[in-house]
Amino acid sequence: MLDPLDPGATVIVACSGGADSLALLSATIFEGHKRSLRVVGVTVDHGLQEGSAAHAVRIVEQMATMGADETLTATVSVAATGLGPEAAAREARYAVLEEVAERLSAARVLLGHTLDDQAETVLLGLTRGSGGRSLAGMRRGFDGFARPLLDVRRDDTVTACQVEDLTTWDDPHNSDPSFTRVRVRRTILPLLEDELGPGVARTLARTADQLRDDMALLDELADEVLARVASPHGLSVPLLAAQPPALRRRAIRAAALAAGAPPGELFHEHVLAVDALLTDWRGQKWIDLPGHLRAVRRDALLVLESAPTAPA
């Protein structure tokens, strides 16, 4: 993750104070300074827990003691949305990290997700019936972000911090069973390991790697389809309907996102409903989509447009 970077480049490490991100910061400082990189530690205060501001100050002091070239705290406001608290916090966190990276002209933002996080993500996607996109798990790199620890177990990051005498912080949310991911981490995955034998987490993570390559190819082909069927007035129904379902539905999803549908709110059910305008046309009026959009079939065109505002 660091080798392609030129000497003097800035690398940001997102650090919560947990074992994973502290181990990542320590490794980045060690390896980055050998390459003459500037390492910046950033902790994000979501303001969701009492004393979070004081905790952020402690993390900043710890990152400076570890040898980060610069440290800072980014405070975010987690808006109430339909995404749920975890997803809303994640969305706010990525947004502020992107802003910090832009201000510092950073070449890379490193995240401390581990193989265990990847396995949990895949298992959650499987139980929710989220399809290949979710089962492909977290990407190793995207839009300037990178996850160098996706092949590293959580136990190894804990051990690394113990060896380096780094004081770690355990987020209370990580032990709160009201969160589905916590139940997967503390109950479901250990049970699978006990009943099916060791290696379940690693197998799930490997499955994500395999699926991600397939998903990338399908998305690329779907983009080509979308480019062929699109016109200034809409998408060609005959051309799009003739495509295989895997490509047709990906093209529909991509078109909806381009029209302004929020990615976290656009579900497979929405895509299937729009798909029915092509393959099961019975004179439907329109399909409502997230982001105040609607999909309408007009003769031989599928149109994605803003939904009319209801009168006050």
Which key phrases capture this entry?
five-stranded antiparallel sheet; alpha/beta; six-stranded mixed sheet; single chain; 2 domains; 11 helices; globular
Give the helices and strands, then pairings:
Elements: E1 10-14, H1 19-34, E2 38-45, H2 52-66, E3 70-75, H3 85-104, E4 108-110, H4 115-127, H5 131-135, E5 141-142, E6 145-146, H6 154-163, H7 180-196, H8 200-229, E7 230-231, E8 234-236, H9 237-241, H10 245-259, H11 268-279, E9 287-289, E10 293-298, E11 301-306
Helix pairs in contact: 1-6, 4-7, 4-8, 8-10, 10-11
What does this structure look like?
The chain has 312 residues and is α/β, with parallel strands linked by helices. The protein has two domains: 187 residues, Rossmann fold (3-Layer(aba) Sandwich), CATH 3.40.50.620; 75 residues, Uridine Diphospho-n-acetylenolpyruvylglucosamine Reductase, domain 3 (2-Layer Sandwich), CATH 3.30.465. The strands form two sheets. A six-stranded mixed sheet has the order 3-2-1-4-6-5. Helix 1 crosses helix 6, helix 4 packs across helix 7 and helix 8 crosses helix 10. The longest helix is centred in the C-terminal third of the chain and has 30 residues. The model has no long low-confidence stretch (mean pLDDT 89).
Précis, in short:
This protein is α/β, with parallel strands linked by helices. It has eleven helices and eleven strands.
At the fold tier of CATH, the topology name of the largest domain is Rossmann fold
Q: Detail the poorly predicted runs.
A: none
CATH architecture annotation of the largest domain: 3-Layer(aba) Sandwich
Tell the overall outline. Answer: globular
Order the strands across the largest sheet as they lie in space.
3-2-1-4-6-5
Return the average pLDDT rounded to an integer: 89
Domain tally: 2
Rg of Cα set: 22 Å
| Class by alpha and beta content | alpha/beta
Order of helices and strands: EHEHEHEHHEEHHHEEHHHEEE
The largest sheet is: 6 strands, mixed
Q: What's the CATH superfamily of the largest domain, by name?
A: HUPs
Strand content: 5-15%
Total count of helical runs of at least 4 residues: 11
CA distance, first residue to last residue: 53 Å
Helix content: 40-55%
Please provide the count of β strands. Answer: 11
